[in-house]
Write a structure and sequence with these properties.
Layout: E1 12-23, E2 27-37, E3 40-45, E4 59-64, E5 73-84, E6 91-96
Antiparallel strand pairs: 1-2, 1-4, 2-3, 3-6, 4-5, 5-6
């Protein structure tokens, strides 16, 4: 997918939800969703995770338990970007659905 301009195709909305990020068959990490939209999400890793297991363009599945749903919502996607703002801060990821 080519690099996008400075705007997103779909709006994002600020949220404060817990979730799980599934990486491969065995990797699963707790996340806190910061924003969410039709095209993707921004999440902070809650669990300590090796960044080597998370590759840009690597496949993931985001599992979110919303307050109004009975079952968790599982959305497949890819890691669009990842960064650590400061050494003491958690890893932040941008996800593309």
């Amino acid at each position: 997918m080519p690099a996008r301009d400075h705007f997103r195709a779909h709006a994002r909305h600020r949220v404060d939800l817990e979730g799980r990020l599934r990486v491969g068959e065995s990797g699963s990490y707790g996340v806190r969703l910061r924003d969410l939209g039709l095209g993707g999400a921004c999440v902070d890793l809650v669990d300590a995770a090796p960044s080597a297991a998370l590759d840009v363009e690597g496949p993931i599945a985001l599992e979110v338990t919303a307050p109004s749903l009975w079952d968790p919502l599982i959305v497949p996607g890819k890691v669009a970007w990842l960064r650590r703002m400061k050494p003491e801060r958690r890893l932040r990821l941008g996800l593309r659905f």
